[in-house]
Amino acid sequence: MKKYQKETRVIPGFGLSMGVTMTMLCLIVIIPLTSIFWNTMDLSFGEFIETITSKRVLSGYKVSLICAFSASLINAVMGVILAWVLVRYSFPGKRILDGLIELPFALPTAIAGIALTSLTVDGGWIGQIFAKAGIHIAYTKIGITLALVFVGEPFVVRSIQPVLESLDTQYEEAAEIMGAGKIYTFFRVIFPEILPALLTGFGLAFARCLGEYGSVIFIAGNKPYSTEIAPLLIMAQLQEYDYAQATAIAIVMLVISFFILFLMNMIQIRAGKRTR
Q: pTM of the predicted model, to two decimals?
């Protein structure tokens, strides 16, 4: 009769560990999200639909979605380049550059918004250069996208970087020996390997940019039907103590974020199956 060795764990006690996990999950995630839906019960279904489909709110959704998507696309391209440089090259100041990637995580977003605004207004160091060509950055969708690129870039870089570090260079060497060019090798050998991580970083950056408020509020200009973002509309309702309408707008943003993350996970799973 075979004897099975009992599985040992570093931290024993599944019941206690699961209890602590579920408690923290309820306190941090489930209860706050449930309260959002609870606050909207003060509105009737017709009032709820009227709130989330008003012209000003729809404009805010449109601005947030367009700028977040544009910023995430830029982050996807630049994130691959930055991760590639940090992994494949050695140069003076590499550790400093690697640390600067995470600066948006530590820097208060309001400070980032003020700094970007002062640089990109028509009289700023960067803004005056583009203003001569008739291009205005601050108080436009371009400025909003720039701020979102700043806050979303670390998600893409940190998602791709570990994959590149673990990627075996023998596949690249084998492709070169067989006569493949560098561009062909990248898109047919390397890119399929980093694609799931790239999609993950894109989804995280998109969801983060969609709800960004601090760094955008200063550079947006907050013009109704032009540069007014959805989080600003939520804050405006909260300042008027209209919690029902604020949470109604927030629910739509929450559903969009969940849908984006779900879609990115599905795409990532399919991409992972293809690469395997």
A: 0.84
